[in-house]
Amino acid sequence: MKQETATVIEHHNFQGDYRILRLNAPAVGPNVRPGQFIHLQIPQLGDRILRRPFSIYNADDIGVAILYKAVGRGTEAMIHLHAGDPVDILGPLGNGYPELTAGRIPVLIAGGYGNAALYLKAKELPVKGVAFFGGRTAQDILCVDEFKALGWDVRPATEDGSLGIKGRVTEAFDPWLQEQDQQSRLELFVCGPNPMLRAMGDRAIEKGFTAWLSLDNNMACGVGACLTCVLKRRTQEGWEWARCCKDGPIFESREILWDE
Q1: Residues in contact with 31: Cβ distance below 8 Å, sequence separation at least 6, in sequence order
Q2: 213 falls in which pLDDT band (50, 70, 90)?
Q3: pLDDT tens profile 130-167
Q4: Are the beta carbons of 246 and 223 closer than 8 angstroms?
Q5: For 84, how many CA atoms within 13 A lie in the half-sphere containing its CB?
Q6: Is the dihedral angle over the CA atoms 211, 215, 221, 226 positive or is it negative?
């Protein structure tokens, strides 16, 4: 983990209400693993001193890029960042997605703009497969062309039917799953809201395949000190508290105790 004063390289509308922010961050960018995040100190927020966590959409030796949507005071303030502005960041944080298990078939599943957090994994994976993206409307399905350019078969689902199958991402995934002869060889990499994560985790447990879930717990410190984001993780002896920001945010579906 590094604390770095990054500089805005590029900041503009990406699609619909979503924006892309590229930061010059040479101390953070080269060390990023797929599924990790940065903690960003938003300038000019007065008494709102807590940093905001953002999944890393892309990273290289120059820096990092994030995709975000203005949904509150913090992200609304970010809209006013311009090229050349300094931004204090911590990162890369979290454990990131593991390597694909030998002999497994990778599948990407995202709800909302969770697919932005899967882009680096999509680039890294040696085998390309199917990517299922879900959102409310076509404007909420991001990066389709970018994933297709990497060789992924992108299958969207929208709640209003404006792109792909009408319904939630599970309604695109489930019929495809039933057609697979070797379900146990599947390895899912999933990012999105917790109800969708749980739904995919339940399917993995029922069908006997692996699902790596990027949990969406509220965070405060981002470095494992404040225990705001804890969850119960299954152990051989029973369970233990795990910190989503430091021990995660990636957990295998069988680790998570959702209701206890």
Answers
A1: 2, 92
A2: very high
A3: 999 999 999 999 999 999 999 999 999 999 999 999 99
A4: yes
A5: 0
A6: negative
> Which residues partner with 232 through β-bridges?
241
CA 85 – CA 42 distance, rounded (Å): 11
Q: Measured between alpha carbons, how far is 242 from 248 in angstroms, rounded to an integer?
A: 8
Residue among 213, 205, 139, 202 at smallest CA distance from 170: 202
82, two tokens: 């311009």
CA 153 to chain centre: 19
User: Rg for the chain (alpha carbons), in Å?
Assistant: 18
Amino acid at 34: P
Q: Where does the chain have alpha helices with state H? A: 73-78, 115-124, 144-149, 169-178, 194-207
Per-chain mean pLDDT for the chain: 93
Alpha-carbon distance of 85 to 238, in angstroms, equals 48
State the pairing for strand pair 186-191/105-111. parallel
Q: What is the pLDDT of residues 67-114, one digit of tens each?
A: 999 888 888 889 999 999 999 999 999 999 999 999 999 999 999 878
**Whole-structure pTM over 0.90, yes or no?**
yes
In sequence order, what are the residues at sequence separation of 6 or more whose Cβ sits closer than 8 angstroms to the Cβ of residue 216? 192, 193, 194, 197, 249
pLDDT at 47: 61
pLDDT over 70 percentage in the chain: 98
Sheet with strand 250-252: strands edge to edge: 165-166, 153-158, 130-135, 105-111, 186-191, 210-214, 250-252
